[in-house]
Specification:
By secondary structure, the chain is of the alpha+beta class. The protein is built from 8 helices and 16 strands. It has one domain: 4-Layer Sandwich (Metallo-beta-lactamase, Chain A), CATH 3.60.15.10. The strands form 3 sheets. It has a 7-stranded mixed beta sheet. Strands 10-11-12-13-14-15-16 form a 7-stranded mixed beta sheet, covered by helices on one side. Strands 6-7 form a two-stranded antiparallel ribbon.
Length: 286
C-alpha cells in the first residue's frame, strides 16, 4: 500500500496465539460472537473456539518504509523452538514466528530495521525482538534499531493473558537501544506513538498521517474487529473503562476523519473503517 510522500506500509501475521475466549471478548461477548458465526460460517472457521474454550488469534505486525527508515510495529512471539527463550506454556500458546522469513522475503535484513515500536511489553508483541546464537547466547535481533515502548509499571493489576518479554527489555536497556515514551511522540513526520493506559500501563498505539494515509494501529486497545463494539472489552485489561474511552477515540476518528483501523490480533478482517449508519456502526472492509 503506497501513498504520496513515498510512505509504504504492509501488514503481516507472523504467528498465531491462543487465548481464553471468554476473557478476550468479555462476559457479554460470547453470544455476540456465536450470533456472528451463525450468519458468517466462514468467519467461524477462522475464529475457532476449541474444547478448552480458547480462541485462535493472529499476531499481526506492521512494516513501514518511510523517509529512509524501516520501521516495525510489534514483532510477534519468541522462538518456541528455543527452550531458553520459551517454555511449554509458550509452545502451547504460540505457533512458530515467521518474522525473520517475512523480512527476508521482503528483501530486508535485520540490520536494515531502524525502529521497532512495541505496543506492549507482552511476549506476543515483543518476544520476536531476541534470539539465541549458536553458542546459546541471547541477543537482540535488530542490532541497529531503536526500540520504543510506553514506560509504565511492569506490574499488572489483573492476571495477564501473556507473560512479559522481560529478557528482551533487559537486553535493550543494557545495549542502550530502548527509548521509553511517556507522552505522545512523533517518530518521523506524520508517524506518532500514542501511549494507552487501558489494557496496561505500558500499552500504546501508532497513528499515521502521511499524504492520503490515515491509519491507527490500535494495539490491545482494539485487538480485533469484534472489539470495535463498545461493550466488548478484554477481561484481561487493567482498566476496562480507560480501554473503552481510548477505543471510542479510535472509532470516532475512523467514523469522522476516515482513519483505517488496524488490528493486532485479528485473523480476518485485519483492517476496517468504521461507518455510522441508522442502525448503528458498521465496518467497511478494504
Amino acid at each position: 500500500m503506497t501513498a504520496p510522500f513515498n510512505l509504504k506500509w504492509t501488514l503481516h501475521d507472523v504467528a498465531l496465539t491462543k487465548k481464553d475466549s471468554g476473557n478476550v471478548f468479555s462476559p457479554q461477548s460470547r453470544a455476540t460472537l456465536l450470533q456472528h458465526f451463525n450468519s458468517s460460517p466462514k468467519e467461524a472457521n477462522k475464529y475457532h473456539v476449541g474444547r478448552d474454550q480458547r480462541i485462535q488469534l493472529a499476531c499481526n505486525i506492521m512494516l513501514i518504509e518511510y523517509l529512509g527508515r524501516t520501521i516495525l510495529v510489534d514483532t510477534g512471539p519468541p522462538d518456541i523452538g528455543d527452550s531458553s527463550l520459551s517454555n511449554e506454556e509458550d509452545a502451547d500458546n504460540f505457533s512458530i514466528n515467521r518474522l525473520h522469513r517475512l523480512l527476508r522475503d521482503q528483501g530486508i535484513s535485520v540490520g536494515d530495521v531502524t525502529d521497532v515500536i512495541l505496543t506492549s511489553r507482552d511476549k506476543d508483541h515483543a518476544g520476536g525482538t531476541i534470539y539465541s546464537d549458536r553458542a546459546g547466547k541471547h541477543k537482540l535481533r535488530f542490532t541497529k534499531a531503536t526500540h520504543y515502548c510506553h514506560k509504565g509499571s511492569e506490574q499488572r493489576q489483573r492476571p495477564q493473558s501473556t507473560p512479559q518479554a522481560d529478557l528482551a527489555f533487559t537486553l535493550m536497556e543494557q545495549s542502550g537501544q530502548l527509548n521509553y515514551i511517556e507522552q505522545e511522540e512523533e517518530l518521523v513526520p506524520g508517524v506518532r506513538i500514542i501511549p494507552a493506559f487501558g489494557p496496561s500501563s505500558y500499552a500504546s498505539m501508532l497513528q499515521i498521517d502521511v499524504g492520503a494515509d490515515r491509519i491507527i494501529f490500535a494495539g490491545d486497545v482494539c485487538p480485533t474487529s469484534y472489539h470495535v463494539t463498545p461493550d466488548i472489552t478484554s477481561a484481561y485489561d487493567d482498566n476496562p473503562d480507560l480501554t473503552f474511552a481510548e477505543k471510542q477515540v479510535c472509532v470516532e476518528k475512523s467514523m469522522h476523519s476516515g482513519y483505517l483501523l488496524v488490528f493486532c490480533h485479528a485473523l480476518e478482517p485485519k483492517t476496517c473503517w468504521v461507518e455510522e449508519t441508522k442502525q448503528g456502526i458498521s465496518l467497511r472492509i478494504p
